[in-house]
Amino acid sequence: MRVHRKLEIWKMGTVNYSQALKLQEKLMSDRKTHKITDTLLSLQHPPTYTLGKRRTDHNILIPESELQSMGAQLHYTQRGGDVTFHGPHQAILYPIISLREIGLGARKYVEKLELTMIELASLYGLKACAGQRGETGVWVGPRKIGAIGVRISSGITSHGLAFNVNPDLNYFRHIVPCGIADKEVTSLQKEVNDMLLSEDVVTEQLVSCFVRTFDYSDVVCKDASSISLDE
To answer: Is 188 annotated as a binding residue?
Structure first.
């Protein structure tokens, strides 16, 4: 018998990273106390570099002042993983879900995030796969197309995944992406080398892949106009 799983999807458009961080903290607290159901934030950020809890500052290759002069922000977080970049034309998903309620451990959860992006890539004829040991995220050959960095607190997840639809890949030149020095970063647009469907459609496809991979049967959507960042 299929377990009934409910997911609320928040389609948020472009959100400042610090605002998204505060919102995740609030939603995590609400999820722990069962005030809300599992929730998925679908959004983009202005140009932003983030570091995980290991604080690997040495993988940022230029001073923070130069990042700021480029119009990019730098944020320190409590997620796992190394330094990464978030920006326009990336599809970002932040799941706030209870792993205990869906019976997943941390490793299996990350594998399902990888499968979500692998399925999206397959829709465009790309054979993507999870990285080798120590290479988090999703890869097309030796090129990274999707990043993963998660936080789990009391069985509740935050942060999540970022899939490169068509971001400016030059931003990745200023860091050692995810701490892996000898591999390139790529995008769906670069790999497909053809006219993509609209970015909104690709993001919707990614969300649909997430819903299928995590086997949600009851899905409710909220769009940006009905969402307050102070909720």
So the answer is: no
Alpha-carbon distance of 87 to 74, in angstroms, equals 12
Closest CA to 175 of 93, 70, 90, 88: 70
Which pTM value belongs to this model? Answer: 0.92
C-alpha span between 161 and 81 (Å, rounded) = 11
Q: Which residue has the tokens 């959100």?
A: 15
Quick: pLDDT tens for 39-81.
999 999 999 988 877 667 777 777 778 878 888 888 778 787 7
Whether the Cβ atoms of residue 210 and residue 116 lie closer than 8 Å to each other: yes
Return the closest-CA partner of residue 40 out of 71, 62, 15, 8. 8
Any idea what DSSP says for residue 16?
A: -
Q: Is 147 labelled as part of a ligand binding site?
A: yes
Tell whether residue 106 is among the known ligand binding residues: no
Question: Does 85 appear as a known binding residue?
Answer: yes
181 is known to lie in a ligand binding site = no
Cβ distance 181 to 174 under 8 Å? no
Q: How many angstroms separate the CA atoms of 192 and 221, rounded?
A: 29
pLDDT digits (tens, 9 = 90+) for 120-153: 999 999 999 998 876 788 999 999 999 999 999 9
SS (H, E, C) 124-164: CCCCCEECCCCCCCEEECCEEEEEEEEEEECCEEEEEEEEE
Read off φ and ψ for residue 14, nearest 5 degrees: -95, 125
CA dihedral of 88, 91, 96, 102, whole degrees rounded to 10: -170
Catalytic residue numbers, as ranges: 178
